[in-house]
Amino acid sequence: MKIKYCMSSVTSHNKPPSRFSGILLVMGILLIAANLRAPFTGIAPVLEQIINHFGLSGSQAGFLTTLPLIAFAVISPMAAIFARKQGLEHALFTALILIFIGIVARFINSSAMLFIGTAIIGIGIAIANVLLPSLIKRDFATKVALMTSAYVLTMGVMSGGFSALVFPLSQLNGLGWQFALGSAAIISVASLIVWTAQLGKHTRPTYSAHQSAPSKSVWRYLLAWQISLLLGLNSFLNYIIITWLPSILTDTGHSAVEAGAYHGAFQIATALPGLVLIPLLAKLKDQSALSFILALLSAASALGLLYMPHFAFVWTLMLGFCSGACFILGLSFISLRTDDPHQAASLSGMSQSVGYLLAAVGPMLAGQLHTATGSWDVPLWLCAIAGVLCALCGLAGGRNTTLHRSAGE
Question: What pTM was computed for the model?
Fold first, then answer.
């Protein structure tokens, strides 16, 4: 499919961008996306090795997996401000540098550096998470669904492939978990090299022709809260599964290698909806019913893991597919429901702050409930309830409107 490159912001010259520069931008976006999950979701398959290596307690291990999500929640509202000061291109380059520094820091044989490196990775990912939707709104205004689906697909395939490989890689010739996790630096270096082509630009999120400055905070729109909770509840469910799926599976008799492979399959499945949603989103102006149905299927899949564990692979794929689809829809809503790139960046910051606060609570709460009850029944029911609430938010957030129009409805 041919991608139309559309530059809506003011640059230092009025020449239209060349085809080659457009291709470089798309490559850069996809490479950035490849960094946005693998460096921290890859921890789950080797978490037991890390616990044994440093003698971590259960709460310390839970905090390690939650730390990037806390960074997402804290940093996300600041990312749009950072981009307005530094420019989108330079802000995204900074995000890549932080991710690379964090990955390298975890090579140091110190539990403190493990946590510090993970936090730095979280800060870098948070900045890029917020700014990519704004960049797509600005430069690919007519291809929002296509580009959003493409970068989410890249993100999922990379994180899923890494999760599937990280445990076997850690066992290869005694290389260990540090080398296995550190191999993610390869993609970070490639991303930095390709993104240098964008550093000649210094563009900022722009306003639409009819709006010279934001007139109302996005936090004051009901529609913004519906979109934020759609992403948040979906992330709450998703990160419980990302963190604890290997443990859930091994408790039901699956091997560590098999659990790691299922964990990778789950993350790849989260990206596959992009292939289906591209044509659907182009035809559907109202996405309410689609969001509602997909979120309900996520809830049903969580209960499937509980009550029919022999079909775990089916439930894992379905849960990944549906939660991934809800994630893509939520990200698309950030662009589709806003009136200009600045508002899109602000809503992106709000939704990811709210979303990742919920996501950060999820794994810790699920772990505590498992410890208290000795089973995964209550955590999986918690996922199902989150899926139902997510469906209700999707029903409201999927309406064909924008923030300004919704305020008058």
Answer: 0.74
